[in-house]
Design a protein that fits this description.
Blueprint (H helix, E strand, L loop, with lengths): L1 H24 L5 E5 L3 E8 L11 H20 L7 H25 L10 E7 H9 L9 H31 L1
Antiparallel strand pairs: 1-2, 2-3
Helix pairs in contact: 1-3, 2-3, 3-5
Length: 176
């Protein structure tokens, strides 16, 4: 459990640190090119989910994120780093991403928070990814480190589950 807590803490701090650096170094809407033609850093406040879905539905997203955090906490507590390092890391990625965005959403809606933000801080804009999203009529995509953890974690979890099922299937066929 201690390994999971350390990994989650490091990931959470990477997310919050990137948001803090964005907050203090960029004006809202300002764009800086980090890697020409590939990566831009900007600052926007997102009050919804990806691609403008559920805009201004912060409380609904707080509730959904809180439920997801509780469910993921259960799976993180099941982590067995000795036997399943990869799966344990995936669960930590998902949990840290969920908690990172939940924290931002809470900060943006609770009136007594000193560091109030008008929404979740998004800052990463991959220029090459805009071609893909615009071809699907989704517009541009700007996200944060927590979103990256969540998407990466979900992709890795799907791959992990597929590989695990294939191994079980192959093992069952070889016994016959």
């Amino acid at each position: 459990m201690i390994i999971s807590l350390i990994v989650i803490f490091i990931l959470f701090m990477l997310d919050q640190g990137s948001k803090y650096l964005t907050e203090i170094n960029l004006a809202e809407g300002e764009v800086r090119e980090a890697i020409p033609g590939f990566l831009k850093i900007t600052k926007i406040y997102n009050t919804g989910a990806g691609w403008g879905m559920l805009d201004n539905a912060t409380w609904l997203l707080v509730i959904i994120s809180a439920i997801a955090t509780v469910v993921l906490a259960y799976f993180v507590m099941q982590n067995n780093w000795k036997k399943e390092k990869f799966k344990s890391f995936i669960m930590c990625l998902l949990f840290a991403g969920c908690v990172g965005n939940l924290y931002d959403r809470l900060v943006s809606v609770l009136p007594f928070t000193k560091a109030a933000r008008p929404g979740v801080v998004d800052m990463i804009k991959w220029s090459w990814f805009d071609w893909f999203t615009s071809s699907l009529h989704l517009g541009t995509t700007i996200f944060n480190v927590a979103d990256f953890f969540l998407v990466t974690g979900l992709v890795l979890l799907i791959l992990y589950l597929i590989v695990t099922e294939v191994r079980v299937y192959v093992k069952s066929k070889s016994r016959k």
